[in-house]
């Protein structure tokens, strides 16, 4: 079966064309224009328009589905006809029963929705009932087949056409009823909304607009109120909030208007004041436009160049210049300095013909639109200042002539440490030209070692204190020379220090002569010194021997009588010990004064002081390994070495960079590693100074520690810094290494020996002495090796009283005999220097070959470690100085016993 819908025009669309339409322009402008005077009217209009459009769309959808349902009913009816009539039509057509075919066609056409029926044979109708609808209707056409001799033969076709006219009429009336109903409902709602909105909203808005329209621009006194009844207890609604907000705005506007009027009055007053200031000030304020024409000038211009403002306005600024090119340079300066010029000096022509020098500071000013409008500035008469400056210059030349004739270094440094004057002798000492020195910062032209030594003195001079510095400096010829430098503050009457004069005299030759004189005087006084020392010792010995004699002769003397005698003996012994140490110190020629240093603490303080010297362009960082070992070194020389290294690092980074100070423990017990560094195997503390500078060429690296070798420019380095560092570290028992690469920076490492050797003196403080009392031994066996019999016996007595067992030997061989006999001590207490060719450390070494765990304490009468260094002491052993008391010995033994 094949169904085919014949296309036809849409009913609703066709009917819609029959009703008059409102043009779009009239709908959007005319209609809204008529109602634009009222919010309620416009709301009603849009409600009506929206409702009509919605009704039309809903009606169209309903009509569409109603038509589809009608077509479906026709198709269902045709399907029923097919089931009822097809077989009858087939038989009648096969036997050519035309009457039967006509009757069947009429029966089919009798159906309600059928308008036309046709039974065709070979394309020709044989039975026809009704007429085809003009719009085509719903057409159903199916072939009529007959089975003959097992073959299906098409003997004709049955055509049925359904009529849609009745359905259209029904749908049209349905659409009209629905549309009318919806429009009526919409209009009712619109009218209701109109009245509600007019009562609740529009009339209040109109009242508000009316009240606002009555308010004039200056009238902010009217209070907005709405005439409406409110239920008791009702909260504020939107209109209440709007009225409250408006009245609050009115109050703020009134307040702002008052402030504005006050501000206007203050502005006018300020303008009057500033105008009065401009008119009264000595400097001249001026303005020119983009063409260089004077548009404004203050009355002081008359005093400046003899022109009154009314005469100067309208003239070109260039007309006042002596040299027109100077005015061109003035204009060009604005481009170079970003739109402003400070202290530009120029020669102006006074109206009476004389030349006036002015200094002007000016800037570009702009109009309200941001466009450049011209130049404004202030001009000042500096004619007298220039004349004074010329007089100062002549005076300066005279001073230069005099100062260059004096064989002394002369500098003048201002309060910001800029050198303002230097004579020829100063230039010679600083190895620079005078022109290069003047105007430079003092710390940039002086050698860094000079700066570090003189800085505290110039800081004191800048607060008004006279300073005298006498120190050794390296002269430009590379020789060390003694310079006496006096820093004299330059203070005003009110005490303000403006700078200081530095006056220096080369005292080298004079001091050499004085030293020779002192040496001759010293040799002359040796006899007197010897006699004096002998006299002092005889006095001490007299006290000791006399009191001992009393004690021996009267053994029955009671304790009260013995105590003063024994105290006198003890005091004399202590005085003798002090006298001995003073003599040893007097005879000592070793310049190093080593001490145990905590580098993490000591260098952190020192580096913090160096930061201003290094400068802001260089970042200084310090990193210390946790648990850093103490080291043994001369603190002053170590700080000087660090200073030299950090200054070298800074000079290697002229554009700035980073200096890293690293402190770490260095275990250099491997012989290969120690040999590579140049050290004896052992434990060291490593100090590394690294920079991010340009590096040192490989061909120069072998020479950097040579005296007077430098990679710096002429006049910027003496070549002694690194050689001093190398000498100090080597003398301290350490080594220096260099690592550098072009473009990758430089690292210099200092290896200093670890401070394992602990020294105790008899001058322990009162607190330590108190802590010593009450320390006793636990019957440990101690071997005492001492060549002095009395001291050996005294030491044995001390140990016995402290609770120790004592073995005595007078020299190394006798100590070895005791050790080889099987009597092994727990501790060996031995003098460093022993007779008969064997030293104390050798005795200890022999004892440890027998028993490795034996501990040792060394006794010495020398002043410092450097004088016992040749004895090769083990760094883990303890040194105690003679003379010592029982308490000192007890504390040392307790330290040895409790050590790991």
Automatic annotation (TrEMBL):
It is found in: Membrane. It catalyses: ATP + protein L-histidine = ADP + protein N-phospho-L-histidine. Its EC number is 2.7.13.3. InterPro entries: CheY-like_superfamily, HAMP_dom, HATPase_C_sf, HATPase_dom, His_kinase_dom, HisK_dim/P_dom, HisK_dim/P_sf, PAC. It holds the Pfam family HATPase_c. Residues 199-258 form the HAMP domain. Coiled coil: none annotated. The chain crosses the membrane at residues 43-65, 174-197. Residues 781-897 form the Response regulatory domain. Its main location: membrane. GO terms for biological process: regulation of DNA-templated transcription. Keywords: ATP-binding, Kinase, Membrane, Nucleotide-binding, Phosphoprotein, Transferase, Transmembrane, Transmembrane helix, Two-component regulatory system. The modification 4-aspartylphosphate is found at residue 831. GO terms for molecular function: ATP binding; phosphorelay sensor kinase activity. Residues 532-756 form the Histidine kinase domain. Residues 342-394, 462-519 form the PAC domain. It comes from the Bacteria. One of its GO terms (cellular component) is membrane. Residues 270-325 form the PAS domain. The keyword Repeat does not apply. This is histidine kinase.
């Amino acid at each position: 079966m094949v169904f085919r819908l014949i296309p036809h025009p849409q009913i609703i669309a066709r009917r819609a064309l029959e009703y008059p339409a409102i043009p779009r322009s009239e709908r959007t402008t005319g209609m809204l224009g008529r109602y634009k005077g009222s919010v309620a009217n416009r709301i009603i209009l849009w409600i009506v328009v929206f409702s009509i459009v919605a009704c039309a769309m809903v009606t169209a959808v309903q009509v569409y589905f109603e038509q589809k349902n009608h077509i479906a009913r026709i198709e269902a009816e045709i399907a029923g006809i097919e089931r009822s009539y097809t077989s009858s039509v087939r038989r009648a057509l096969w036997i050519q029963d035309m009457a039967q075919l006509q009757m069947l066609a009429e029966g089919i056409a009798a159906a309600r929705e059928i308008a036309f029926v046709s039974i065709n044979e070979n394309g020709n109708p044989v039975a026809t009932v009704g007429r085809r609808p003009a719009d085509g209707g719903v057409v159903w056409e199916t072939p009529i087949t007959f089975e003959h001799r097992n073959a299906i033969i098409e003997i004709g076709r049955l055509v049925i056409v359904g009529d849609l006219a009745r359905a259209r009429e029904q749908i049209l009336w349905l659409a009209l009823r629905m549309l009318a109903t919806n429009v009526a409902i919409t209009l009712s709602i619109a009218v209701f909304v109109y009245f509600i909105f007019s009562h609740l909203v529009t009339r209040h808005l109109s009242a508000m607009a009316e009240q606002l329209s009555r308010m004039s621009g200056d009238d902010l006194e009217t209070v907005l109120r709405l005439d409406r009844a409110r239920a008791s207890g009702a909260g504020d609604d939107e209109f209440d909030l709007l009225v409250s907000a408006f009245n609050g705005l009115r109050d703020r506007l009134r307040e702002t208007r008052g402030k504005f009027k006050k501000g206007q009055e203050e502005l006018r007053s300020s303008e009057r004041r500033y105008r009065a200031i401009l008119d009264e000030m000595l400097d001249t304020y001026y303005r020119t436009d983009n063409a260089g024409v004077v548009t404004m000038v203050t009355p002081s211009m008359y005093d400046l160049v003899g022109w009154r403002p009314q005469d100067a306005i309208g003239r070109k600024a260039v007309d006042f210049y002596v040299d027109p090119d100077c005015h061109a340079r003035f204009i060009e300066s604005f481009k170079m300095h970003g739109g402003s010029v400070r202290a530009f000096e120029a020669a102006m022509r006074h109206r009476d013909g004389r030349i006036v020098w002015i200094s002007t500071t000016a800037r570009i000013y702009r109009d309200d639109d941001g466009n450049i409008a011209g130049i404004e500035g202030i001009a000042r008469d500096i004619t007298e200042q220039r004349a004074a400056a010329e007089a100062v210059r002549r005076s300066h030349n005279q001073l230069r002539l005099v100062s260059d004739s004096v064989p002394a270094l002369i500098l003048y440094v201002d309060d910001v440490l800029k050198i303002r004057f230097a004579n020829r002798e100063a230039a010679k000492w600083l190895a620079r030209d005078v022109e290069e020195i003047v105007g430079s910062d003092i710390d940039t032209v002086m050698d860094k070692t000079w700066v570090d030594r003189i800085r505290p003195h110039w800081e004191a001079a800048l607060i008004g204190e006279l300073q005298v510095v006498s120190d050794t400096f390296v002269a430009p010829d590379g020789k060390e020379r003694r310079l006496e430098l006096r820093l004299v503050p330059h203070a005003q009457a009110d005490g303000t220090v403006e700078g200081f004069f530095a006056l220096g005299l080369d005292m080298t030759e004079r001091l050499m002569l004085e030293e020779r004189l002192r040496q001759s005087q010293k040799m002359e006084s040796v006899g007197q010194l010897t006699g004096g020392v002998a006299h002092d010792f005889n006095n001490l010995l007299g006290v000791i021997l006399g009191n001992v004699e009393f004690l021996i002769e009267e053994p029955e003397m009671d304790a009260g009588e013995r105590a003063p005698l024994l105290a006198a003996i003890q005091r004399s012994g202590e005085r003798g010990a002090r006298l001995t140490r003073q003599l040893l110190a007097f005879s000592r020629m070793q310049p190093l004064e080593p001490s145990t240093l905590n580098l993490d603490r000591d260098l952190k303080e020192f580096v913090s002081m160096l930061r201003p010297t290094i400068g802001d362009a260089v970042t200084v960082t310090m990193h210390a390994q946790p648990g850093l070992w103490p080291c043994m070194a001369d603190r002053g020389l170590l700080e000087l070495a660090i200073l030299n290294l950090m200054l070298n690092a800074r000079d290697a980074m002229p554009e700035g960079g980073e200096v890293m100070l690293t402190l770490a423990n260095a275990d250099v017990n491997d012989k290969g590693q120690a040999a590579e560094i140049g050290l004896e195997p052992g434990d060291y503390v490593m100090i590394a100074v690294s920079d991010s500078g340009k590096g040192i060429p490989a061909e120069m690296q072998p020479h950097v520690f040579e005296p007077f070798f430098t990679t710096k420019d002429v006049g910027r380095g003496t070549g002694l810094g690194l050689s001093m560092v190398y000498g100090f570290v080597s003398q301290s028992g350490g080594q220096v290494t260099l690592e550098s690469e072009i473009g990758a920076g430089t690292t210099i490492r200092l290896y200093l020996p670890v401070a394992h050797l602990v020294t105790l003196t008899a001058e322990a403080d009162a607190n330590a002495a108190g802590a010593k009392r009450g320390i006793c031994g636990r019957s440990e066996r101690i071997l005492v090796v001492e060549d002095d019999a009395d001291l050996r016996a005294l030491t044995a007595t001390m140990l016995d009283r402290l609770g120790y067992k004592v073995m005595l030997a007078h020299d190394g061989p006798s100590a070895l005999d005791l050790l080889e006999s099987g009597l092994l001590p727990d501790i060996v207490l031995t003098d460093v220097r022993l007779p008969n060719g064997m030293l104390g450390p050798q005795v200890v070494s022999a004892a440890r070959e027998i028993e490795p765990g034996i501990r040792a304490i060394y006794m010495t009468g020398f002043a410092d470690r450097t004088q016992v260094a040749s004895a090769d002491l083990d760094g883990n052993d303890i040194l105690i100085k003679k003379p010592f008391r029982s308490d000192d010995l007890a504390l040392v033994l307790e330290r040895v016993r409790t050590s790991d």
